[in-house]
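Example record used in the benchmark description.
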Amino acid sequence: MILLQISKFIQPVAVKLESWAYASIRFVPNLIIAVIILVVFRYLSHYGSRITEKTLTRASQNIALVSLISALTKITIITTGLFFALGMLGLDKTVTSLLAGAGVLALALGFAFQDLTTNFISGAFIAIQRPIKVGDVIETNGFTGKVLSIGLRSVKMDNFAGQHVELPSKDIFQKPIVNFTYSGERRIQLLCSVANNENLNFVEGLVLSVINSLDFLQKQKPVELNFTKFGDNGIEFEVFFWIDQSKAGPGPAKSAAIKAVKKAFDENNIAIPLQKRGPEPPQTKDQA
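Model output (structure tokens):
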């Protein structure tokens, strides 16, 4: 009687174990195939990452961008292999849950780090389009300086005053940029004036001769001189000339031009009218 009761208890357990063993045996081939898929995609991710890195290195000098895209390529290939392996094991619902969870997580991170994401995307576009390069002298967002480094998050500049300026990539990407190095050429504007009684034709010929004698001038482009208006103290004019930046920078070139014009005016007794000063502020009792 006792043996019969034990037999009735053990028989369902034995049947269940047998079914599990049979299912396990059927599951082994799928498990082997899933492991093979993971191994194959692991090697594909390695080679895909290397190919992406080599290709992008030729197109961009931004190491941070190249490394980021290379890493994303590797992660994408491995993730794809993982989904294939889970599907081979019959875990389709798990794949769907992972995709849904990844979407929700990406959306949450996008809202939480909106500014950071915008900076990274802007930095990526700067690296791809390359409107600026390391070493360029640019003006943007109210700052002028030499580009020291271009990252995904920010661009660092030297403002020529011993200070480093770090600007977010989105500000560089979304706002106007004046690149003084892009064409390799630079035009200088010189403002001046002469007295009303001076011979303007003589003044024009003299200034053009002086500017054209400067050794850092670009001889391929002509010097322009235009009289602009009758001022309060004389007749104002402006001079435009192009310089070879390998010989002189904008500041030294403009300084040399001013000194040369002043010397020529002094030698030919041409007067430069003095600018009128505004009314002086009234003195206080303490100053009196």
